[in-house]
From TrEMBL:
This is Membrane protein. It holds the Pfam family DUF2956. Residues 1-34, 48-90 are annotated as: Disordered. InterPro entries: DUF2956. Keywords: Membrane, Transmembrane, Transmembrane helix. It comes from the Bacteria. The chain crosses the membrane at residues 95-114. Residues 51-61 have a biased composition (Basic and acidic residues). Residues 1-16, 80-90 have a biased composition (Polar residues).
Length: 119
C-alpha cells in the first residue's frame, strides 16, 4: 500500500494563503471558515508548484536531450538554440494560473457565504 505523503506548506505559502483568505473574507464569516479557505488556497498553491516542478523537469529533459544532439551534430546548432529559447520561455511561470486560482477561491468563498446566509 502506498502511503500518502503529506507535505507541510512553507510558512511563506501559509501567510500568503491567509492574506488571500482574509482579503476575500465577507462580513459575518467565522475565523474557522476563513481558516478552511486558507487551507484550500494552500492546497491549490502546493498543487500548482508541483505541476510547475514537473513541467520544469520535462523541459530540462528536453533541453539536455537537445544538448546531446547538438554535440553530435554541430552543423545544426543554430536550429537547436532557437528551439531551446522557445521552450525556456514557455516554462516560465505565468500570472494567469495564479489569477485563476485566486478567482476560483473567491467564488468558492462567495458560494459558501451565500449558502450559509440562506440557512
Amino acid at each position: 500500500m502506498k502511503k500518502k505523503s503529506t507535505t507541510v506548506p512553507s510558512q511563506e505559502t501559509q501567510t500568503e494563503a491567509m492574506k488571500i483568505a482574509k482579503a476575500t473574507q465577507k462580513p459575518g464569516q467565522t475565523k474557522d471558515q476563513t481558516k478552511l479557505i486558507a487551507q484550500g488556497i494552500e492546497k491549490g498553491i502546493a498543487l500548482y508548484k508541483k505541476q510547475q516542478k514537473e513541467k520544469n523537469r520535462q523541459a530540462d529533459k528536453v533541453r539536455k536531450k537537445q544538448q546531446r544532439e547538438k554535440q553530435r551534430q554541430p552543423q545544426e546548432s543554430t536550429e537547436n538554440e532557437a528551439q531551446m529559447t522557445v521552450e525556456t520561455k514557455s516554462t516560465r511561470s505565468n500570472i494567469l494560473p495564479w489569477g485563476l486560482l485566486i478567482l476560483s477561491w473567491i467564488g468558492f468563498a462567495a458560494a459558501t457565504l451565500i449558502e450559509h446566509s440562506f440557512l
